[in-house]
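Budget justification aside, the reviewers requested a transparent look at the raw inputs and outputs of the sequence design task funded under Objective 1. We therefore reproduce one unedited record. The lines immediately below are the structure tokens for a 131-residue chain.
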């Protein structure tokens, strides 16, 4: 489900990170970067037709999830690209590292692991747009 149109990159988010992705898109717009926002809705099964359309219209994809990156939603997107032999895509997965995540307030943990809209925006500018 496309929530925002944008031509510079596509942000595909899942679950609680969808609203964060919309905020990230607004922050990027202030930097003249137009990011599409897609609500993936389900980790499995992936919506292949939506992913194929995203790949036809964008060469940069950012996945955002509140879960562990290894074996998570972003990994499933990478597996889809490989399985469908889709080449030339720049993909950045944003989520939690594969290690023990201590207990704490959600906002504090998001701050610590760079999952705030501002931190995600910085990563996108530094690693996806310029890198």
């Amino acid at each position: 489900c496309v929530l925002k149109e944008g031509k510079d990159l596509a942000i595909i988010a899942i679950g609680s990170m969808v609203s964060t992705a919309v905020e990230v898109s607004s922050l990027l717009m202030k930097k003249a970067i137009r990011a599409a926002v897609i609500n993936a809705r389900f980790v499995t099964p992936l919506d292949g037709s939506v992913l194929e359309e995203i790949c036809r219209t964008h060469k940069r994809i950012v996945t955002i999830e509140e879960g562990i990156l290894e074996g998570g939603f972003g990994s499933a997107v990478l597996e889809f690209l490989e399985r469908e032999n889709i080449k030339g895509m720049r993909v950045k997965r944003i989520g939690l590292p594969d290690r023990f995540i201590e207990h704490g307030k959600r906002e504090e943990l998001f701050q610590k692991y760079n999952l705030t809209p501002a931190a995600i925006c910085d990563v996108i500018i530094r690693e996806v747009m310029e890198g």
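Residues 2 and 38 are 4 Å apart (CA to CA). The chain has a mean pLDDT of 94. Computational costs for records of this kind are itemized in the attached budget.
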